[in-house]
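quick one, 504 residues, struct below
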Amino acid sequence: MIKNIKWLVLVSLTFVACNNNDDNTVADVPVTAGSANFTKYVALGNSITSGFSDGALFQAGQMNAYPNLLSQQFAQAGGGAFSTPMMNDNIGGLLLGGNIIQATRLIFNGSAPVNLPGTPTTEVLNHLAGPFNNMGVPGAKSFHLLAPNYGNPAGVATGTANPYFARFASSATTSVLADAMAQQPTFFSLWIGNNDVLGYATTGGDGTNPITPATGAPGVGFDGTYNYLVTTLTSGGAKGVIANIPYVSSIPFFTTIPFNPLTASVIGNGNVATGQATITQLNTQLYGPLSQALTAFGAGDRIHLLSTTAANPLLIKDESLTDLSAQLTAAFTPSLGASTAAFYGQVYGQARQATATDLVLLTTQSVIGTAPAGIPAPINSFGITYPLQDKHILIPTEISDLKTATDAYNVTIKAAATANGLAFVDANAVMSQLATPSGISFDNFNMTSAFVQGGAFGLDGVHPTARGQAYIANKFLEAINATYGSTFKMYKPQDFPLSYPAGL
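---
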């Protein structure tokens, strides 16, 4: 069976040039602040705000983070210094008491993303003296910004505190919001809420990382939390810019691996003849009997015979289906015996073949074709003879739950912008456009959400490239200009790399 599936990406990292010569600058106009005061700018958010990219936080990514880019423009209109809790190196990764708790950043080795060789040098327990203007904390959900002890080093190992915030929190008992307000910001950016749905999505909706409720008190529900954040941040008269939440279905982490990658060549490990013979055997011994039994139970649409000439879908478990374990056990007992039949019934009671409405996680690529722990031959091949589990894939009911939550969050965010006169960035619309075949024109370049070669997303399939960060900065600047009458200029794509090389 398959050991792994080749990465479905191109080595080339070039963009397709467009004939669009739009210049997104405010030409020949002096840079002015308009009605906003940028003396003390503080940025609150999660990993994107911090500059996280390619699966890690590292210096180059931090320098290209959109808040840092905004601060450079603000400096031309009275903005003050902007400090960031810098990592020690461009290797990425974290140490806790000398032990690695976060891996190094990803690089592209010519065929697949791999971790950069080396050992992290950034130690969580080596505390940084602040305050810091970039308060972006990788992994933070909305309610984490209110949580006391979120930067307590003693809680990092137990999961009650965040290692990134622990590096620069002003005290073990403070919160992200408290440290931001202690600086008396005159202007802020707030982009939070992505992880409130993304955590659920990247775990396949398996229940280990639930969606934050759309409603509830501060620290519990998104609306109460978000409105508390905005009310507090604006309490001293500060102005700001906020952004809404993109649908997770628009990012390459969920759109790169097809639902039907199982060709005869793939199943035969590159040998088509071997793959075709294996498919014939699978149809005779597994798919045929399963399809016949399920059809008898009125569920014949779950499993179909594999094709020797076309791409076949992955075998998955769908927990939303009626569990037919008992029926399959009864059907297989005469031929397999009671014990084996019961095992097969349990394995395939909620099994089906994936469809285009399912989203396969990027990390699942390395699982397909491998042997599940403790599962005997001949059904010990994930996605082929043994169903991919809940954590490996998003099914339509889970995707619907994510969309419902995101839509509710975005209503709250837009209402907060309107009620408080804040600049608003429709990040969801931007991401949806990136996900279309035509993508987005960024001056003379074109960006899409395609993994690696699209140029907008890094090697983890979630976080933006340096050029993606520049585009985000421009959308924030456009919103600020439109709301406050400022005249900030836009960044040029050619000034930012498409990818971070190994030798930074």
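The CA atoms of residues 139 and 300 lie 42 Å apart.
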